[in-house]
Amino acid sequence: MTGKPMLADEDRRRIAQIAETADKLLKETVRLRGDVTRLQGRIEPFKNEVLVKVQEHEHQVPRTLKDAFEMLSMSRQYILDCEHHLSAIRGHIDSIASDAISREEMKPWLK
Fold first, then answer.
1. Which residues contact 26 (CB under 8 A, 6 or more apart)?
2. pLDDT tens per residue, range 41-75
3. Per-residue pLDDT averaged across 63-91, rounded?
4. CA atoms within 13 A on the CB side of 70
5. In a domain, 2, yes or no
6. What percent of the chain has pLDDT over 70?
C-alpha cells in the first residue's frame, strides 16, 4: 500500500467535529465584527478620523483539519480586531462623557 495512511472512523469524526466547531466560531466572529462596526458607526467620528471598514468574509466549508485550523486562526484575529475597536469606542464614549455640553445631552445613553 502506498500513499496516505487511512484514518480511523473515530479520527474522521473528530476532525469533522473540529471543522464544524471552527466553522461555527468563524460565523459568530464575523457577526460580532459586524455588530462592532455598526456600533462604531453610531458614534460620530472626530475630525480627520476614519471609521474602520470590515472586509467581507467569503464563507467556505472546511474540508480538512488544516482548513479548520485556518478558520480558528481567522476567528482569533477577528476577535482581536473587535477588542481593538471596542477600546476605541470606549475612548469615544469617555470623551463624550467628560465634555460638559455633550455630557448633558448623552447622559441617558451613558451608564
1. 57, 59, 71, 72, 74, 75, 78
2. 777 655 555 555 555 556 677 888 898 899 999 99
3. 89
4. 9
5. no
6. 68
- Check: pTM over 0.90? Answer yes or no: no
Question: 12 lies in a domain?
Answer: no
What distance in Å separates the CA atoms of residue 63 and residue 16, rounded to the nearest whole number?
8
Residue 74 lies in a domain: yes
Query: Could you give the CA distance from residue 103 to residue 111 in angstroms, rounded to a whole number?
Result: 11
Helix (H) or strand (E) holding 6: none
The answer to whether the CB of 5 falls within 8 A of the CB of 53 is no
Q: Residue 111's domain spans which residues?
A: 62-111
* CB half-sphere exposure, 105, CA atoms < 13 A: 6
Residue with cell 460620530: 44
